[in-house]
Amino acid sequence: MEAMLERYARVAAPLYGETADWLKRWAPAPGVVVDVGSGPGALSFLLADAFPEARIVAADPEEALLARARERAGNEGLAGRFGTVRAALPDDIDDVPQADLLWLCKSLHHVGDQGAALSALAGRLAPGGAIALLEGGLAARYLPRDIGFGRPGLLARIEAADEEWFAGMRAGLDGAKDATEDWPALLTGAGLRYEATRSFLLDLPAPLSADARAHVVTEFTRRREMHADRLAADDLAAIDRLLDEDDPQSLHRRADLFLLTAQTVHVAVKDDRP
Questions:
Q1: Does residue 176 contact residue 113 with C-beta atoms inside 8 Å?
Q2: How far apart are CA 206 and CA 8, in angstroms?
Q3: What domain count does the chain have?
Q4: Model confidence over 41-62: pLDDT tens digits?
Q5: pLDDT per residue over 203-230, tens digit each?
Q6: How many CB atoms lie within 10 A of CB 75?
Q7: The pTM is what?
Q8: Nearest to 38 by CA among 64, 13, 19
Q9: What is the CATH number of the domain that holds 119?
């Protein structure tokens, strides 16, 4: 997962850079930025570039991933303004430092009670501070509807399997509560002032770079493993062919492979009045 997350951060750097620039209207000069659910800190370092005067804190429940983030910070000369904290939402919220900007990138949906987690995070915001919540958007597209073999519409069926997997994942979380995915309403319910929502496009046309191609191969490999019991046999066979390095129509060799997706960010601010 470390290598996969770090590679995607490189591939999607234009999208995240544009997002960070947009966030500067609510956090023009943050003193502390916390990447909540940071993993190995892949996006923490993009935040460090976007906010060069800020102290960056990577917060995650997995110590091994935080150790990787600290190692990278040392290698890149950022140790002086980079820290980590081991924290799982919402139980360990008191360990998260007070922040001027809290960044949550696809981490909230891994918490059973998302509303409670947002309310707890709101308590860690400095007055006037902002939460940037990346949830939703559009699923990635990589290939045409008809890929030249198998039944057309493979990606649509993979996405349907993704939705089934996601529902099962959410249902199995500790303290899972159903919540309408109205992110502005959830942010408002946490006592914050909702400000804006914007979607950011990542459009990488063919031919893809080596990093982007490797990312797509990893995504299909993961879904082949995740959905072995959800997809029909002919779709699994088509994925196997896409992953076969010796096949001229595989993901490794196709000239028509692209990456197109959109990610949606919601911003809310903590009232700075007493």
A1: yes
A2: 17
A3: 1
A4: 999 999 999 999 999 999 999 9
A5: 999 999 999 999 999 999 999 999 999 9
A6: 9
A7: 0.95
A8: 64
A9: 3.40.50.150
